[in-house]
Prior knowledge:
Strand content: 25-35%
Order of helices and strands: EEHEEHHEEEHEEEEHEEEEHE
Helix content: 25-40%
Radius of gyration: 19 Å
Low-confidence stretches: 261-270
Number of helices: 6
Distance between the termini: 23 Å
Structural class: alpha+beta
Shape: globular
Oligomer: single chain
Mean pLDDT: 93
Amino acid sequence: MTVTCNGRPAQVEDLLPALVNYGHFTSLQVRGHAVQGLELHLARLSQATRELFGSELDTAQVQVWMAQALRQAGQADASLRVTVYSRHFDFRNPLAAVPVDLLVAVAAPVALSASKRVRSVVWQRELPQIKHVGTFGLFAERRAAMAEGFDDVLFVTADGEVSEGSTWNLALHDGERLLWPQAPALRGTAEALLKQHWPGAQGTQPLRLADMTGVKAAFACNASGLWALEAIDGHVLPGSQTLAEQGRAVLAAVPWQGVGSDPFCGAKGI
């Protein structure tokens, strides 16, 4: 893995402010220097920067640093994590608007597709609409689920509404429509692309664990892939593999946008 800070190799002094654990990020897959839903990732970073730091993010500069990090790593295909934090942030005066810094980490590409069995738990991330760096709780819940023999964890609100997975969104099918949970959650880029391009009937509504008896299939998705949910709390979903294949076909047709000063240079598909 290689890490840059504001376009140059990250030094120890660049990383020390990150110990405050206040910041946000986006994770994305790059293929041939191109990204699916690049504008969605940039919009996520911009909005969270306003909310957490009271400042504006130069998204053109972000793309330049992303492209530069890929060149320095010598990788056209990669996993990128773009983290926004601030060396000027003072937790004693958190209302002060401060300029931000950008870490870009380049690692090997990932493509998730293996089906999973998940267990539900009543839990919700802080500020669920923001992809922030406070990930301790969700990974602890995932670990607890895996210790009980499950592959991952599904979060449910105190009122019993399904919200999101540990690091993924989910869609369910009742035999007629694709259904997206409405509870507060981090709305992912893969979810947004699927909502835009899904060819059949779909809707967003409150979905409760008690409603699982009417669910025939489900899949999970994030920027690293889409996979079938074989079962939720032991409730087997026999149509999930077929639904996941349909979802992957939808995403395969979505254009890829080149990373760089021109967001559409080198657009391609894989």
